[in-house]
Each structure stands twice: as structure tokens, then as C-alpha cells.
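Structure first, sequence second, as always.
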């Protein structure tokens, strides 16, 4: 979708609100600010673990607003980060999403994965999971 008209902007806002509503529902909250922070952090920590090509392929399936969030603070010179450990992944997610601890980050990772499953093609999600180390993949892959 090209953002060349007001209608296109309204569509991307609507789609982003759908994602946020799904994230809020998964987190059991009505607070869209919490959902925004959690989804943004999840997408960015996941992005940092992907190759440039895979990150771009995933981003292509995001609404334009979330694509901007996905690439916020992006440094292509450090892709993919060498995050191999589940605890490090969760620690980074807790930091990025301003969460209390790793337990809250694990809940957020589960919620984010469920939202991705609803909105991204299964093939793309599998391509993302293949790039993740076993411990992180195990955290995200079995979420249904």
C-alpha cells in the first residue's frame, strides 16, 4: 500500500489500531499505551535478531505505522544481534518495552507472537522462526 492519500493514512491507522486491540486483548488490558509499548518493544527486539533481508520481509507485512516503529532506532551495521539466550532476549524486551521483569517480558513475547500469527502469513512467520536460536524459537514458536 502506498501512502499517497488521506484514505491510505486512515487505513494504516485503522490496521494499526486492530493490531493494538489484539495486543491489548492478549495482555488482558484496556490500556492502548501499554499495548503500544509492548508491541513496539517486541517488534524491535525481534527485528534485531533477524538478518536485514528477513527483517525487511517481515516489515513488508506490517501496517505502515508499525513498520515505522519496527525500524525506529534501527542500526543495519549490527544485524543480526548475537542474542542466543532466552533470558537475554527477555531482558532486552523488558528494557525496550519498559516492563517490570523477565516474567512480564515472557507474557509480552507470547502476546506479540499471537498477534503476529493473526496478521502475518504463516510462511513469513516460519521464515522468522528459522532465524532464531533454539532457546528463543522455543519461547515463541509453540505459541498458538
Amino acid at each position: 500500500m502506498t501512502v499517497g492519500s488521506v484514505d491510505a493514512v486512515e487505513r494504516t491507522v485503522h490496521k494499526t489500531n486492530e493490531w493494538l486491540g489484539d495486543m491489548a486483548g492478549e495482555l488482558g488490558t484496556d490500556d492502548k499505551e501499554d499495548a503500544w509499548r509492548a508491541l513496539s518493544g517486541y517488534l524491535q527486539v525481534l527485528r534485531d535478531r533477524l538478518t536485514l533481508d528477513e527483517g525487511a520481509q517481515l516489515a513488508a507485512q506490517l501496517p505502515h505505522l508499525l513498520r515505522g516503529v519496527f525500524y525506529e532506532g534501527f542500526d543495519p551495521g549490527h544485524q543480526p544481534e548475537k542474542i542466543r539466550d532466552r533470558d537475554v532476549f527477555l531482558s532486552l524486551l523488558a528494557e525496550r518495552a519498559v516492563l517490570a521483569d523477565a516474567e512480564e517480558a515472557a507474557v509480552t513475547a507470547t502476546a506479540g507472537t499471537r498477534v503476529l500469527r493473526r496478521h502475518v502469513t504463516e510462511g513469513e512467520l516460519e521464515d522468522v522462526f528459522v532465524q532464531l536460536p533454539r532457546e528463543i524459537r522455543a519461547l515463541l514458536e509453540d505459541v498458538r
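Margin note: The chain has one domain: 6-141.
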